[in-house]
Amino acid sequence: MNKILEWSGVITAILYSILVAFNIGLEFIGFFLLLISALLLGFWSYKLKYKGILLLQLFYAIAALIGMYRWFG
Q1: End-to-end CA separation in angstroms for the chain
Q2: Which of the 8 DSSP states describes residue 73?
Q3: pLDDT at residue number 3
Q4: Chain centroid, CA 36 distance in Å
Q5: How far is CA 70 from CA 35, 42, 45, 59, in A?
Q6: Distance CA 35, CA 37 (A)
Q7: Which three-class secondary structure state does DSSP give residue 18?
Q8: For the chain, which residues make up each domain, given as ranges?
Q9: Looking at the predicted structure, is the pLDDT value of residue 47 above 80?
Q10: Number of Cβ within a 10 Å radius of residue 22
C-alpha cells in the first residue's frame, strides 16, 4: 500500500507539472492533480512518520486549492 501511495503521488505530480508547464489551458486539471498528489503523498508521509514531507505536502495542497480558486475565481 505504501508503494502505491508513493508512486501514485509521484505520477500525479509529474502530470501536474507537465500540464502547467505547457500552458495549454489545462491548468485547473493540473492544480487538481497537484491536490491529489499532495493528499496521496501526505497520507504516505503520515503513515511513515516523514514529518518534513508531510509539511511540504500541506503547503502543496494549499497551493493547489489557491490555484483552483484563482483559475475560476
Answers
A1: 36
A2: -
A3: 95
A4: 5
A5: 14, 23, 28, 16
A6: 5
A7: helix
A8: 2-72
A9: yes
A10: 11
